[in-house]
Amino acid sequence: MSDNTQDLIAQLRAIVGDAGLVTDADAQAPYLKDWLGKWQGRVTVVVRPADTAQTAEVVRLCHITHTPIVAQGGNTGMSGGGTPDDSGAQVILSTTRMNRIREVDPLNNTMTVDAGVILANAQQAAREADRYFPLSLGAEGSCTVGGNLATNAGGIAVLRFGNMRELALGLEVVLPDGRIWNGLRGLRKDNTGYDLRDLFIGSEGTLGVITGAVLKLFAQPHARATAWVGADTLEQLVELLARTRARCGERLVAFEMMSAASLALVLQHVADTRAPLAQPAAFNALIELADTEDGGLQAMLEDVLGQALEDGLVNDAMFCASQAQSAALWKLREGISQAQVRAGKVVKHDIALPISSLAAFTQAADAAIAGEDIPAEIINFGHLGDGNLHFNVMIPLSSTYEEVKHATAVFNRLVHDMVARMNGSISAEHGVGQLRRDELRHYKQPLEMELMLRIKQAFDPNLIMNPGKLL
Amino acid sequence: MSDNTQDLIAQLRAIVGDAGLVTDADAQAPYLKDWLGKWQGRVTVVVRPADTAQTAEVVRLCHITHTPIVAQGGNTGMSGGGTPDDSGAQVILSTTRMNRIREVDPLNNTMTVDAGVILANAQQAAREADRYFPLSLGAEGSCTVGGNLATNAGGIAVLRFGNMRELALGLEVVLPDGRIWNGLRGLRKDNTGYDLRDLFIGSEGTLGVITGAVLKLFAQPHARATAWVGADTLEQLVELLARTRARCGERLVAFEMMSAASLALVLQHVADTRAPLAQPAAFNALIELADTEDGGLQAMLEDVLGQALEDGLVNDAMFCASQAQSAALWKLREGISQAQVRAGKVVKHDIALPISSLAAFTQAADAAIAGEDIPAEIINFGHLGDGNLHFNVMIPLSSTYEEVKHATAVFNRLVHDMVARMNGSISAEHGVGQLRRDELRHYKQPLEMELMLRIKQAFDPNLIMNPGKLL
């Protein structure tokens, strides 16, 4: 360890104390590797400030010493945005000790929280005030609100409540020079200049460290109705989505899609699952309505889907009569990740398209992938209601490292070229991080990259905030 | 006219043709003055490009010649953001010839429009596709979508659908050097870098000229229920808002407040109006629910307000049995502007606070204003559901210019000091423009002003975009 490094650690210790430093190699290990095991880095030290003031001091010290900072929340990212590089020169700033619910304001329908609050705890705090915080995603038991903000997290309720961006009213951010921007405003209307908040949201730790947020709360849903339908084509499901929305309005809270292959994979590899319909369908949808009170929610869903059956838009439908049945359907949807891991090696995609283009994309991409000389099965599923497909391509479990690498390059290019042509996004909800950084430069308009770099330069001229990510 | 000016006009004519230039003084007049008659400027010329390509050429020319540009839509702003200064050196770039609905995509629930489309025409285009575009405000018959975006317009449906910011998915912007940023993406999820869209929205023409947008559409409401209630205190209405939201969820589309003085003013000065309740109430609320289908909407509203009556939270309630009755209630709410003009001279405010602070603010501000040695009546009304009060102070119609000036300085300072202490906004939905520019510098955190200036510098280093506004 160099003198400089020892000196930096001593100064950090003076700010955060022993409790705020992780120097031991074993203790550091979980911070250095992403949970998918794709990226592994090294650091000078992991620092865990107890509050915003300590965070500001830590960042100020890194500013002075030109020490690069990787902010990390629950370390549940999909794109390596929170994993350090392997230079050993970076510092991980973990927000996990900052985990206070600062205030719940039921009359304002807002909640102010530390960035390190775990998403499930934020949901729980809202529930305890008879309110609802709608962000919901697989990692909610360990991801943090700060990470959700830094990556503008999505999940299953976006079609109804929007991304994390739409769920935050105010932010507190430590800027790259250690000054604190207090933007913790709980206002629905504020037109006093440039929207700094939304610049930090989704910037993946490259413009500052988010330390707190004011989040929007909603009325608690007290009734739900869930159904599963099968259709021959994706066009039919897109049409059904439009019909359901026109009829049910904002009661529609989930419209998830699974192809026949996705469902078959889950049924084969996940215990205690069974097919919801008598006959397999080419495309399945899990549809859920919610409301503050019942008022015939189930009847409404049966009516709209009954009409769709009559019109031949769907082949079959199954309605849940109990919470257990609904949970069984959600288990099918949520079992895909696990099933994929067991069944093969997966070239993942996280794309978004205009909903009106999803069917055409799927047809074209299916054909193009079949035309490649690589044994592959398409696992097409996702959040149809907001145009987000996880259009994954699975290759045999026995594939070598080189084969995976080749397949990834081929299929990423094929899928993303098509997405770019159709005015879609190559990263709908997982962010760019390290995973899509090179692709971003390839696909983004040069003008847009230039504007992003100008912003980076304006906010972080020393380039110490999460270097090597996003940009 | 100098040679330089003649030269500039000739070059502009080469781009936009005779149809795109307004050089005649009479024809220019409506562009040079805001509709409230508060600001009046002069220009070299008014240029009206026919499309995005022409706009880009015009801006490119201004970039080369360092000619300052004031972008203007329907010229309905409240803060002078679209009025040129009186140097005569500026050029007005009017977007009003760019008025095409480019595309309506019902399956994607989006609409792509030129910036110059009048808001009411955008609403109409949505309706024709059996969809709903919810932005609604007094000027909707003449304001443009581009102006709505540049000022992040609010209005009466924000508590349910958000500001213009929440209603836009993609933008097309001509940058200060004349290059076109095509961000016309119709995606609900897109996490590929910094959020440029939201930087332009609300930037009041200081970072570029918005020429097109992709807007979100919603399901058409097919049922509405409207009621009027009277209460003794603002606390009671805030509590009623919370209850109504908990019970009715997103059916609640309007919760407007009028003080007794506001209502009395309308009844006195606007023809064909009558009091909705038998006894005047200190605070009134106009409450509206909407839904895609009826399903007992009226009964739900009667139930929640009936319970509030029983609990003594409100004194009286009137339910609308017809569209005509509902229109009569809305006429009371919308009549305030007209009534104020007839009754006195008005020191206007457009503030936002956490909803939980509205009552405390009102009490304190009422007392403080009564303590000033200026004859004044408080006209307190606004969008209670999103914390936005137009807390206006009316002084006698006979007040002199000097008296108005003095009262404005005193009451602006008093109200805005209080708003700042309560973590509110001094410009909720009207923007900064010229009206609040000096106050913005006074109230905004220096750090936030600094970040805004850095962004301005990064995007518009020659400072040609709407100089003298906002910053």
Automatic annotation (TrEMBL), chains A, B:
What InterPro entries does the entry give?
FAD-bd_oxidored_4_C, FAD-bd_PCMH, FAD-bd_PCMH-like_sf, FAD-bd_PCMH_sub1, FAD-bd_PCMH_sub2, FAD-linked_Oxase-like_C, FAD-oxidored/transferase_4, Oxid_FAD_bind_N
Tell me the ranges covered by the FAD-binding PCMH-type domain, including all copies: 39-220
Question: Which is an annotated Pfam family here?
Answer: FAD_binding_4
The answer to whether the entry has keyword Protein biosynthesis is no
Q: Which keywords appear in this protein's UniProt record, sorted alphabetically?
A: FAD, Flavoprotein
The UniProt similarity line reads: Belongs to the FAD-binding oxidoreductase/transferase type 4 family.
Q: What is this protein called?
A: FAD-binding oxidoreductase
